[in-house]
Amino acid sequence: MDNVDEVLEVKNRMVMRGKTIKVLRIIKDKTLQDVVKDTGLAISTLSAMENETRNVTSVSQLKLARYLLNELQYTPDEVVVLQAFINQKEDDYIA
User: pTM of the predicted model, to two decimals?
Assistant: First the structure.
């Protein structure tokens, strides 16, 4: 396991779900266009990531991780806690 900008990376895949990215973006009142402008990702790629409809490259996830940490000023702990909360809520919903 390695760290990339303090975000855990496992076998070249960022451990960050699209739903987590979307919630963190909305909390900071950022639009998809804002993220596209700052990351260089295509809006279709970002939308597919957030909706978890397409597998995404580790490069795209790395760009988003850097954006969340550097531009939106989230800490790695905040990202992990929110993701755990989302996962727990989904597990509760399914059960």
Answer: 0.77
